[in-house]
């Protein structure tokens, strides 16, 4: 197996660990795909009434995105023969862990929307880029209290910020990976986009923590 294939394979398997489902099973909660938005992610986990489970899901999904890129940096980059090859491996690791979250092989390819995992991968690629994208999410959420709108704003901002001269990623494999993740995030949020345009999307509120049947 080539190094690139190993990066893709290992990162995809790591991304396929859906923390929303794992945490729900460990805490005796209903499958997050069976209630609310049906999305196995931190926001939908709030509807379980278990805030700790939602927090664990958020941390776990972000951590696996970060870990995938860190593993590439530690185990594979020392063997890279050029900057281009190193960038390709980093891009492959970030993209594969994200795709694993969206289409997890362990859970019948029914994954989440990927916001936390994408953020973790961005932090691994460039801590400053990741923090700036997180700041965009926090600013929009602080104003609107709408999680999906915050995610969409962050998704749009990521490739723009990554294309700025200070980042040094424009038109590199890493930038294309960031662009791909952003486009897939927009695609996964298409129902939210429709609801936003029709005025049906609701802000996150305490009432979103109703207990589903277990």
List keywords for this structure.
single chain; 214 residues; mainly alpha; 66% helix; 0% strand; disordered C terminus
Task: Report what the structure shows.
The protein is globular, with a radius of gyration of 17 Å. It is mainly alpha-helical and 214 residues long. Helices cover 66% and strands 0% of the residues. The longest helix has 26 residues. The relative contact order is 0.14. The C terminus is likely disordered. It has one domain. It has 10 helices and no strands.
Write the layout of secondary structure elements.
Layout: H1 3-15, H2 19-26, H3 42-45, H4 51-76, H5 83-102, H6 115-125, H7 127-144, H8 147-162, H9 173-188, H10 190-198
Helix pairs in contact: 1-4, 1-5, 2-4, 4-5, 4-6, 5-6, 5-9, 6-7, 6-9, 7-8, 8-9
- Count the helices. How many? 10
Please indicate the count of domains.
Answer: 1
End-to-end separation in angstroms reads 43 Å
Taking pLDDT < 50 over at least 5 consecutive residues as the criterion, the unreliable ranges are: 209-214
User: Whole-number average pLDDT?
Assistant: 90
Briefly say what this structure is.
The chain contains ten helices and no strands. The chain is an all-alpha fold and 214 residues long.
């Amino acid at each position: 197996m080539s190094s690139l294939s190993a990066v893709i394979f290992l990162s995809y398997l790591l991304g396929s660990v859906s923390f929303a489902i794992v945490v729900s099973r460990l805490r005796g909660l209903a499958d997050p795909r069976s209630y609310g938005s049906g999305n196995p992610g931190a926001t939908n986990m709030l509807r379980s009434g278990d805030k700790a489970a939602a927090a664990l899901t958020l941390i776990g999904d972000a951590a696996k995105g970060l870990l995938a890129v860190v593993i590439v940096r530690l185990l594979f980059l020392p063997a890279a023969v050029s900057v281009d090859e190193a960038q390709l491996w980093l891009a492959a690791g970030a993209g594969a862990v994200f795709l694993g979250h969206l289409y997890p092989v362990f859970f019948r390819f029914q994954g989440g929307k990927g916001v936390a995992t994408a953020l973790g991968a961005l932090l691994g690629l460039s801590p400053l880029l990741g923090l700036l994208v997180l700041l965009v999410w926090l600013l929009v959420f602080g104003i609107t209290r709408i999680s999906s709108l915050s995610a969409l704003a962050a998704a749009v901002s990521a490739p723009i910020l990554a294309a700025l001269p200070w980042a040094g990623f424009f038109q590199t494999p890493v930038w294309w990976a960031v662009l791909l993740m952003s486009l897939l995030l927009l695609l996964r949020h298409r129902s939210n986009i429709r609801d936003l345009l029709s005025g049906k999307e609701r802000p996150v509120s305490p009432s979103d923590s109703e207990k589903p049947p277990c």
